[in-house]
Amino acid sequence: MRVLAALALCATLCSAAAAQEEYFPLQEGHSWTYTGTFNGRDLKIVQKVTKKEKVGDVECFVLMTTPSSNKEGEHVVVTKTGVWRHRYRGEDLVPPVEFLRFPVKAGHKWDTKYTSKLGGGETEVKGSFEVVAEEDLEVPAGRFKAFKVAVDMKIGDQSSKSAIWFAKDVGIVQQSFTLPAGEVVVKLAKFEKGKP
């Protein structure tokens, strides 16, 4: 009887963890196409999972974005606790950056801090993340219920604000960035699943 109870508990916990992972589904071949505008110019951005690669002992998925000057991509993994970026632009992030925490629920807050060596020097990077709310969102790819995550980053003496909307079974459906030259908003136009 105890074995059955333990198996039932394990099945419940495993399915709950799997349900959370669906907020950032990673599989080789998955791709997301985003469209938007910035300063009157049309934007089209494609992000694709190209392969798996280890960062230290952690097997990550490599996401490549086009157009981008970042030829190394970013190395991301989904765990039972959240979504973690382990490498960006060829630089290992120590500690890794958690950009979505499970369970996804409004009011969740967390911070991150690491030292970046990009550009030849050492720059302290601090970030604060907060799941603000679950919202109904309409983007070119359709209508979604999505959790909005507000992000405040401080890179050296420069600050930036952004927001990311995560939808179940799809991942990121909208992103906004506040830059010195204005705000950029990109919205999901198409999500294509890779072949299993």
The gist of it:
The protein has about 200 residues and is mainly beta. The chain is built from one helix and twelve strands. The longest helix has 20 residues, at about 1-20.
Please describe what this structure looks like.
With 196 residues, the chain is mainly beta. It has one domain (19-192): YmcC-like fold, CATH 2.40.360. It has one helix at residues 2-21, and strands at 31-38, 41-55, 58-66, 74-78, 82-88, 91-101, 109-116, 123-139, 142-155, 158-167, 171-179, 182-192. It has a 12-stranded antiparallel β-sheet, with no helix packed on it. The longest helix is centred in the N-terminal third of the chain and has 20 residues, at 2-21. The model is unreliable at 1-18 (pLDDT under 50).
How many domains?
A: 1
Shape designation: globular
CATH topology: YmcC-like fold
CATH architecture: Beta Barrel
Q: Indicate the radius of gyration in whole angstroms.
A: 18 Å
**What profile does the largest beta sheet have?**
12 strands, antiparallel
Q: Report the top-level CATH class.
A: Mainly Beta
| Order of strands in the sheet with most strands | 6-5-4-3-2-1-12-11-10-9-8-7
Into which percentage range does the β-strand content fall? over 45%
- End-to-end gap: 37 Å
Structural classification: mainly beta
Number of strands: 12
The helix-strand sequence is HEEEEEEEEEEEE
Helix content: 10-25%
Average residue pLDDT:
86
Poorly predicted spans: 1-18
Please work out how many helical segments DSSP would assign. 1
